[in-house]
Amino acid sequence: MISPLLANLFLHEAFDQWMADKHADIPFERDADDILCHCVSEAQARALQDALGQRVLQYQLELHPHKTKIVYCKDANRRGRDPAQRFDFLGYTVRPRSSKNRTGQLFVSFAPAVSEKAAKAMRQRMRRWQLHHRNDLGLEELARWTRPVVMGGVRYYGRFHA
User: Fold this and answer.
1) What are 100-141's pLDDT values in tens digits?
2) Strand partners of residue 99
3) Whole-angstrom distance, CA of residue 154 vs CA of residue 152
4) Could you identify which of 54, 58, 112, 145 might form a hypothetical disulfide with 94, taking C-beta atoms 3.0 to 4.6 angstroms apart as the criterion?
5) Could you give the CA distance from residue 58 to residue 55 in angstroms, rounded to a whole number?
């Protein structure tokens, strides 16, 4: 239990404070050791990636080569081409998706929705319930038993893209 706490304290010094001092113009999100930085250009993203690589070397660490990447946030206003146009963060996959504006017209937005990995985990959890064998329970009892888990998933993953 102490390891996540120590990692959080360590990253507060090694990353959070460093970003506030050196890159205050770049907003970021961090949950434990998962970090997402919002750069305005590819040049800014590459410069931050290089600087961050140097920063973690000072602590005898290195950036994960497969998890550390620059992603192009393609949407209706950004129509460039780049092979990396999606990423997973906190159980969501963020990628270009069809969305509707206020008038009901479709457009492309760069938006989050449940990731394949998280969806698979939810399906496996529900299969383990073996509801088809629970003929000892009535429909209302089944609903009362499953509702907290199902509603928790709907509330968490439906927050951005229902």
Assistant:
1) 999 999 999 999 999 999 999 999 999 999 999 999 999 999
2) 107
3) 5
4) 112
5) 5
